[in-house]
Automatic annotation (TrEMBL):
Example of a GO biological process term: lipid transport
Any Pfam family hit: LTP_2
Organism field: Vigna unguiculata (Cowpea)
InterPro entries reported in the protein's UniProt record: Bifun_inhib/LTP/seed_sf (IPR036312), Bifunc_inhib/LTP/seed_store (IPR016140), Plant_nsLTP (IPR000528)
Family designation: Belongs to the plant LTP family.
Protein name per UniProt: Bifunctional inhibitor/plant lipid transfer protein/seed storage helical domain-containing protein
Stretch forming the signal peptide: 1-20
Domain named Bifunctional inhibitor/plant lipid transfer protein/seed storage helical: residues: 18-107
Top-level taxon of the source organism: Eukaryota
Coiled-coil region(s): none
Amino acid sequence: MKMKIVFVTFFTLLVVFAAAQESSNGLTCDQEKSLFAPCFDFLTKKTDAPATSCCQGLKQIISSASTKEEKQAACSCLKDAASKFLPNIDKDRANHICQTCKSSTDLGCQK
């Protein structure tokens, strides 16, 4: 009986661990907001250029969003964060931040 309980517990943990590994490819909205936060000064014209951490975070968000649905979710998340925390956002800077950061691709948020 003890052996059966140990096996069931081990199997359950294995399934939970495997599920966690699969979902870790994408980022949560909170993680995306955190990675995007260093861009706020640039987007509100407090700085002339985005910080290195802004571009690195943006590239990490883009690389984690591999499907159309993940890209749409990331766009929604970042647009929501911008509307809540950045009332004075420069829309031109926001629409071109991927180019400014020299990212070879973008999320397509301006579409």
